[in-house]
Design brief:
The chain folds into 3 domains: about 5-150, no CATH class; about 150-250, no CATH class; about 260-320. The chain is built from 16 helices and 6 strands. The chain has helices at about 30-40, 60-65, 85-95, 105-115, 120-130, 135-145, 150-160, 165, 175-190, 190-210, 215, 220-225, 235-250, 250-265, 295-310, 310-315, and strands at about 5-10, 45-50, 50-55, 70-80, 270-275, 285-290. Strands 1-4-2-3 form a 4-stranded mixed sheet. A hairpin with a 2-residue loop joins strand 2 and strand 3. Helix 3 runs antiparallel to helix 4 and helix 4 (about 105-115) crosses helix 6 (about 135-145). The protein is elongated, with a radius of gyration of 29 Å.
Length: about 325
């Protein structure tokens, strides 16, 4: 790496130019206190661009030093003939040697490599060499696609409130839709399966009713749930899930309600559960009976016998009823 060392004015650095920025982390108090105590152990890497300097690596260190009130910075200045691709390699290497990159940082790095590389093979070679992401080209492009998502969605991914596999399916959505989706995901903090269910339902409702996802999520009934401060996150998620299923499957919801009512009329033992066929398709019902002793098993047998003889049971499994 061809560079010289120099002390420069921080005001001579264009900190708004983030072309080579990989990190998603903000400056924190620990970094500021470290610099105040022992100074910069690793000098930022800069390059002259026009009348100013731009940062190749060391964005957080530069900002943290400026926050301490310092006006001067000791830096490494790259030779002006070094190519943008080599500068990006320096930036990626500086980040990957300090920590494992998160998904958004990987997406940034892959996207920047793609923009600076001519030809497919050199690109995939660099991704494997510098980012250790393997040779699965489909996966690499999925990761790259995350960089096109709006910042609100990227933040949700970093909070681990949106799985990578699902996030990649949102690429191409209008930004207005994604902004609305981000509000719900950030509030509800859904599990992986519930994330997929939520996004599938709102997409299907949007297509069927010919309205945008943003329009649907901004409807008063849904907004009233998400903005209700008297409800906890799980309660909001439950109410929204019920609302979405009713909206998407109005006839199915009615069937579920009839089934639940019949089960209540059976007055089953608390350790007994009857489940219908999934989505009431097919004809296989499920009966679960829990016990922890022989006495409880005998009790469950009696409950089973009563269930068979109960007149409601025949109606419960009658397909014509549904």
């Amino acid at each position: 790496m061809n560079y010289t060392e120099a002390d420069i004015n921080i005001s001579d650095i264009d900190q708004t130019d983030d072309f080579y920025k990989i990190t998603t982390a903000d400056v924190d108090d620990d970094l500021i206190h470290s610099i105040q105590s022992i100074g910069l152990l690793n000098r930022p890497l800069l390059m002259r661009k026009g009348h100013a300097f731009i940062i190749v690596s060391g964005f957080r260190r530069t900002e943290a030093l400026a926050r301490t009130g310092e006006n001067r910075l000791s830096a490494r200045i790259l030779h002006p003939d070094i190519s943008p691709l080599d500068c990006l390699k320096f930036s990626i290497s500086d980040n990957t040697t300090q920590r494992e990159l998160n998904m958004i940082e990987n997406a940034r790095a892959v996207d920047k490599l793609a923009n600076l590389t001519t030809g497919a093979e050199p690109f995939y070679t660099l991704v494997e060499t510098f980012l250790k992401l393997g040779k699965n080209r489909r996966l690499i492009h999925k990761i790259q696609s995350l960089n096109s998502l709006p910042e609100q969605i990227k933040t949700i991914i970093l909070k681990e409130q949106l799985d990578f596999s699902i996030a990649s399916e949102l690429v191409g959505y209008p930004e207005s839709d994604l902004t609305a989706i981000a509000i719900y995901l950030d509030t509800l903090k859904l599990s992986l399966s519930k994330q997929r269910e939520f996004l599938t339902l709102i997409a299907e409702i949007s297509r069927r009713e010919n309205i945008s996802v943003q329009e649907f999520l901004n409807e008063p009934d849904l907004k009233a749930i998400i903005q209700n401060n008297d409800l906890e996150g799980n309660q909001k998620a439950g109410k929204i899930r019920i609302y979405l299923k009713k909206r998407r499957y109005p006839s199915l919801t009615g069937t579920e309600e009839r089934f639940i009512q019949l089960v209540k009329e059976l007055k089953l033992n608390p350790n007994t559960k009857v489940s219908p066929p999934r989505y009431f398709e097919g004809s296989v019902f499920s009966l679960t009976m829990n016990f922890s002793s022989l006495a409880e098993l005998i009790e469950q047998k009696e409950s089973f016998d009563q269930l068979i003889r109960h007149p409601i049971t025949k109606k419960l499994v009658d397909k014509d009823f549904y």
